[in-house]
């Protein structure tokens, strides 16, 4: 049995090293989908920062800017997820990495259907997928440079 344990450990370490960042980032995305990060709650943080950056901003412009920050977060979350997948466990399998991002975006929006203060949106899935796709383009550009 000691021989089995010793041989299993070297195989498990690279697996964890590649998947742990992806799993942790997935947990971050899941956490950001909770009611703690609803628009009503994030407005308490984002709106004062925007008001400080843009003194005299109108209420309408503040609402639009707040929504834009939140949508940029969607895009960025999935750009990072794709990058972690394409540079880690799914290196060389870029289409599968993209598909994983799209599936996770669908699951994330489905999760939000059951979270008070959150709503599911197919537009958010499209935005998440666009972030992953953009990250794929960046990966391809970086690979061309290297």
Q: What characteristics describe this protein?
A:
5 helices; mainly alpha; 146 residues; 81% helix
Write up this protein.
- The chain is an all-alpha fold and 146 residues long.
- The protein has one domain (12-145).
- 81% of the residues lie in helices and 0% in strands.
- It is globular and about 55 Å long.
- The model has no long low-confidence stretch (mean pLDDT 92).
Q: Can I get a quick summary?
A:
With 146 residues, the chain is an all-alpha fold. Helix content is 81%, strand content 0%.
Write the layout of secondary structure elements.
Elements: H1 2-32, H2 39-53, H3 59-87, H4 94-112, H5 122-145
Distance between the termini: 45 Å
- Helicity range: over 70%
Strand content: under 5%
Secondary structure tally, helices: 5
Radius of gyration (Å): 19 Å
Pairing-aware structural class of the strands and helices? Answer: mainly alpha
Number of domains: 1
- Please state the overall shape, judged from the principal axes of the Cα atoms: globular
Major beta sheet, specifics? none
Run of helices and strands: HHHHH
Number of distinct beta strands: 0
Low-confidence stretches: none
Average pLDDT reading: 92
């Amino acid at each position: 049995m000691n021989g089995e344990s010793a041989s299993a450990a070297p195989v498990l370490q690279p697996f964890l090293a590649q998947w742990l960042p992806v799993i942790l980032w997935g947990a971050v995305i899941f956490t950001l989908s909770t009611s703690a990060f609803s628009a009503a709650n994030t407005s308490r943080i984002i709106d004062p920062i925007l008001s400080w950056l843009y003194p005299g901003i109108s209420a309408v412009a503040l609402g639009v800017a707040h929504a834009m920050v939140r949508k940029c977060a969607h895009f960025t979350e999935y750009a990072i997820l794709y990058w972690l997948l394409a540079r880690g466990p799914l290196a060389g399998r870029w289409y599968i990495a993209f598909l994983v991002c799209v599936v996770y975006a669908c699951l994330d929006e489905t999760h939000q259907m059951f979270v008070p203060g959150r709503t599911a949106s197919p537009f958010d899935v499209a935005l998440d997928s666009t972030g992953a796709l953009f990250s794929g383009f960046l990966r391809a550009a970086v690979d061309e440079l290297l």
